Amino acid sequence: MNGLKAFSELLLLCFFLLYLPYHVSAQHLVEYPLDNNPVILKYIETVADNHSRNSQSCVPDTLPMPFFEDFSGSDDIYPDCNKWQDNHVFVNFDMAFKPPSVGVATFEGLSPDGTPYNTSASVGMGSPADTLTSQHIDLSGKTAADAIYLSFFYQKQGLSDRPEERDSFFLEFKDSNDVWISVWAVPGVADSVSTLVIPEFNQQYIAVDSGFYLYNGFQFRYRNLASVSGNNDHWHLDYIILDESRANNADSLNPNYGRHPDVTFTQRPTTPLKNNYSSMPWRHFTGPSCWADSVLIYNFNHNDVSGIATLDREYEVEEISPASTSLIVEGIPAIPSYFPSANSDDSLRHELAGTFHSSFNPTEKTTIRSTYKILSPGGFQSNPVFFFNDTVSTNTVLDNYFAYDDGTAETRVIAQGLGTKVAVEFTSEIKDTLQGIYFHLPYFTNRDAQLDFINVKVWLDSLTGPEAFSRDLFHLQYANGFNGFYFVELLDFSGDKVLVHLEPGQKFYVGWQQSFGPEVPVGFDRSTDARSKTFIGTGSSWDTMSIKGSVMIRPLLWGGADFTLIPVDNIENPSLELLVYPNPTEGILNLKLSDDDSDSEYSLIIYNTMGQEVFSGEFVEQINLYNLEKGLYLLSLMNDKGIPVVNKKLIKF
């Protein structure tokens, strides 16, 4: 067996020396939009009564003024039926950049089920896409003197795909003749704006003063033009108010609002774990040193004046599973004075040293919840319509893997160019063994990325030293409705497990190298930030990643004698085995499936090192490869849907 491994490694080395370019120019991670929305796809799969919500409109209703919506008071991905009549937009907490309050409605090129409106539509043309239509509103008896205004915040792009100038966003009012009238529109981002610039949110005021709109049954709706072939051209909408006694761009006329008596949370709590981990193995949680040194609390002051009042903001961390309501952090002290600038962002960094209970010592998989609260908001925030954005929370899981991402891919990234490497750094807190790596392979429509190649890599201590593990010419696979994580076990060419041992405090890196053929995408989470732990390698040089976000790759550590794969979105891990012998072979190759009764369901494809198909056919127990040139090949066993379920490397000599 050792001779076989040595021979295999020699061939692989010759292969890479032959095909890697002599000089690799500076290359880096490149970001591309997704073709669908994996969060919506997952929601549709898991919510039993979702069908009617994803395919039908809400029951019409008539509402009084004031109308207020900031998309912060619901865990649903669709708009609130009490306020809106349709469900085209995606309500989320991750895709906007510095919103006026936590939660936004996102407009793009996807239908309510999270898939493209038209996969064959031209990407160079803005077409009608999402619509958000209000319920009927009673404006009967009102006149222009009542100073009724509709105000809202909107943002182009945010943390997702940038709309071009042709991809406009517009507002329509329905008049008393049941005709929709366009009253406001804005184009996408000009080509002259740098791609490194993320446009800020803007607020817009629209007067509702025409007699054609002042009736019982008035409605307004937002629409966008986008490339409807995928998850493209994003607009984010937030903080919508329709009320009277207002003025253009200043609400001081209305004593119930000010402008506006509301201090909102704009983001969910940051992770309480050190190193910006969104998750870590519970066995690696060794005490207070594993907590973050501080957390950031983000607010927005919607008032016209600063120094409004003392603002008490509380931060709690509690264990919610398996224990019940066990506080780990009981809160933070009140802020003695609060003087944020009027109508602006505000952030508070709270030091956590010494605030966590030292008795917290998980002995099994544990879920903790972090919560921000505004306490006793007082007169400056007495209007109950603003209460929903005063509390936000997020959950953190301690299981048997490390992660920086939050499980949601806003976009995808590729390692651009043959030989380019991506590595993500982690630190082992205890003596342990790396078992494998989870990858999120995002689905997209123009090709099947399961057929493309990467080389899976592990490094210890430093990226400039030898690799601790390499698995070349490997296919990733989609998992659980294209929203799961696919597990890559650390196996060598012969199928034997490779144990990568880790010492306490030791750094290790997991990642991949772009192999031959089309470049393989990996999920990318834009709402977290692991730039300082992510590195891009070209040739022998490495650079820190410059794009804000986290590559969705997770190392899985040993979990004891009862070690099992964690069910990250129901990982698909086929138990089918394929025996291939002799390997290396001079020409005759024998194949044996563990599932003898299902041979007819499978087919075979063999690829050369350039990713070219050199053999294909139905599954048989013996094939003749004498006509193939000497070298390294990849054999893929395909199921009846054409998806590879087993891959084996072959050597022809």
Please render the helix and strand layout as text:
Layout: H1 2-19, E1 29-32, H2 38-46, H3 50-55, E2 62-63, E3 67-69, E4 90-92, E5 104-107, E6 127-133, E7 136-138, E8 149-156, E9 169-174, E10 180-186, E11 202-207, E12 216-226, E13 235-243, E14 263-265, E15 279-281, E16 294-301, E17 312-321, E18 326-329, E19 344-351, E20 366-375, E21 391-399, E22 411-415, E23 421-427, E24 432-439, E25 454-460, E26 467-474, E27 486-489, E28 500-502, E29 507-514, E30 521-525, E31 534-538, E32 541-544, E33 550-551, E34 553-557, E35 578-581, E36 588-593, E37 603-607, E38 613-618, E39 622-624, E40 631-638, E41 644-652
Parallel strand pairs: 2-7, 15-21
Antiparallel strand pairs: 1-22, 3-13, 4-5, 5-13, 6-12, 7-12, 8-11, 8-13, 9-10, 9-12, 14-16, 16-19, 17-18, 17-20, 20-21, 22-30, 23-29, 23-31, 24-27, 24-28, 24-34, 25-26, 25-29, 30-33, 31-32, 35-36, 36-39, 37-38, 37-40, 40-41
Describe what you observe in this structure.
The chain is mainly β. The protein has four domains: 2-32 and 403-557, Jelly Rolls; 38-259, Sandwich (Jelly Rolls); 265-399, Immunoglobulin-like; 578-652, Immunoglobulins (Immunoglobulin-like), CATH 2.60.40. 5% of the residues lie in helices and 37% in strands. It has three helices and 41 strands. Strands 2, 6, 7, 9, 10 and 12 form a six-stranded mixed beta sheet that branches. The longest helix is centred in the first third of the chain and has 18 residues, at 2-19. It is globular. Residues 1-27, 48-52 and 566-574 have low confidence and may be disordered.
